[in-house]
Specification:
Layout: E1 8-12, H1 13-25, E2 32-36, H2 38-43, H3 46-56, E3 60-63, H4 66-74, E4 81-83, H5 91-96, E5 100-103, H6 106-118, E6 124-129, H7 144-152, E7 157-163, H8 175-196, E8 201-203, H9 207-212, E9 220-223, H10 234-237, E10 244-249, E11 252-256, E12 261-262, E13 268-269, E14 274-279, E15 297-300, E16 303-308, E17 316-319, E18 330-334, H11 340-345, H12 351-357, E19 363-367
Parallel strand pairs: 1-19, 2-3, 2-9, 3-4, 4-5, 5-6, 6-7, 7-8
Antiparallel strand pairs: 1-10, 10-18, 11-14, 12-13, 14-17, 15-16, 15-18, 16-17
Helix pairs in contact: 1-3, 6-7, 7-8
The site of pyridoxal-5'-phosphate has 10 residues, from strand 9.
């Protein structure tokens, strides 16, 4: 039996390469590709993933916050980095590390112009975010004149792209809404380009957008979850390979007698003889309480072992009744053998959440 010493997130860069090439095959060769590496590259290893994407020929990277971009620069990543959700408090860092802000409101635009001017920047690359229906971040169509006027009389910045984000790209029943968003984005970008006298590149598609609305790829696409091996649709999942495998090990096995209980609050009570295995993995590692009481299922020697009772901070106990296993045996929480999407579905959530939840305490091992 393959033994692992501790809880480990194994990252398979050959799977990342496969997914990158698959997603690239869905768009035109001239369309640029932005790899989204926010949140530690969806809970994996931001630097290792960014460096691999750089090597594979990605054109751009994106993070959510400036601090994430700073980590990439400090690791020597050279690709242009779009910061999706910059805050005015971080503008000086952002400029110092050559990170490119998404400007999404009048006040954030004005504050960035001021920062760029103060720092004597010229043609500093910025991106204009349009809200087309997600109602999260972004300018509306009526702001076009304002944006153009502010940017034209200030030589410190240059708009390199306009972008927007689909609210339901994976949801076929919202096709009409997505098409409306695409139409609105096209209109705003065109109007802004005309006012500026140049045409910034445009991008709108996330992973499911690439799959379902390839006609709206414009000059660039932005993929996150697909790079990590998940496509929000079973047919897409079948073409992708999970990058991350979360493994752990059996620390101890107990024989539980009828009427005895397992874990805090005695949340599992045995009605027959049960064999339990204790694993060094808990809610502090990212396995939330919602996975308790059978909602989370791990794989031990090819067999399913559901979580018994409540998830503890540093441990879970799983039901290994009838499974041939011993202390020291390997446990798979998710990976190619059992997808993170399937693991998450047990607790009514999605791959994005379980992947990004895996805490920094869990050791990362990068496999080339
Ligand atoms: C996170 C994010 C993405 C990536 O979406 P996926 O569904 O993971 O491909 C793209 N664009 C924006 C604006 C995002 O916030």
């Amino acid at each position: 039996m393959n033994k692992v010493g501790e809880t480990t997130l194994v990252l398979d860069l050959s799977a990342l390469e496969h997914n990158y090439k698959y997603l690239r095959s869905k768009i035109a060769p001239e369309t640029k590709f932005l790899g989204v590496v926010k949140a530690f590259a969806y809970g994996s290893d931001m630097v290792a993933i960014a460096q691999k994407l750089e090597e594979l020929g990605a054109d751009y990277l994106a993070v959510a916050y400036a601090s994430e971009g700073v980590l990439l620069r400090q690791a020597g990543v050279k690709l242009p980095i779009l910061v999706l959700h910059p805050l005015a408090a971080n503008f000086d860092d952002l400029i110092a590390y050559c990170l490119e802000p998404s400007l999404y409101s009048r006040s954030i635009l004005n504050q960035f112009l001021k920062a760029a001017e103060t720092q004597k920047q010229q043609d500093y690359p910025v991106h204009i975010k349009f809200n087309t229906g997600l109602n999260r971040l972004g300018f509306s169509q009526v702001d076009v004149d304002f944006i153009a006027e502010e940017v034209k009389r200030n030589a410190s910045v240059k708009i390199v792209s306009t972008f927007s984000h689909l609210a339901a790209s994976e949801d076929g029943s919202e096709r009409a809404f997505s098409l409306e968003q695409i139409g609105s984005f096209k209109k705003s970008s065109k109007a802004l380009g005309e006012k500026l006298g140049y045409a910034p590149m445009r991008h709108m598609l996330n992973t499911s957008g690439i799959i379902n609305y390839a006609e709206a790829q414009f000059e660039m696409v932005r993929s996150g979850i697909g790079l990590y091996g998940y496509g929000n649709q079973a047919e897409v999942d079948a073409s992708l390979r999970p990058v991350a495998t979360l493994k752990t090990v059996i620390s101890q096995i107990h024989e539980i007698e009828p009427n005895h209980s397992v874990g805090y609050n005695r949340a599992f009570k045995a009605d027959k003889k049960v064999k339990s295995a204790t694993l060094p993995l808990g809610h502090a590692d990212g396995i939330g309480r919602q996975y308790g009481k059978g909602k989370g299922i791990v794989i031990i020697n090819g067999k399913k072992a559901p979580i018994l009772g409540n998830v503890c901070m540093d441990m879970i106990m799983v039901d290994v009744t009838g499974i041939d296993c011993k202390e020291g045996d390997e446990v798979i929480v998710f990976g190619p053998q059992k997808s993170a999407e399937a693991f998450a579905a047990g607790a009514n959530t999605i791959s994005y959440e379980i992947l990004t939840a895996i805490s920094q305490r869990v050791k990362r091992v990068v496999k080339c």
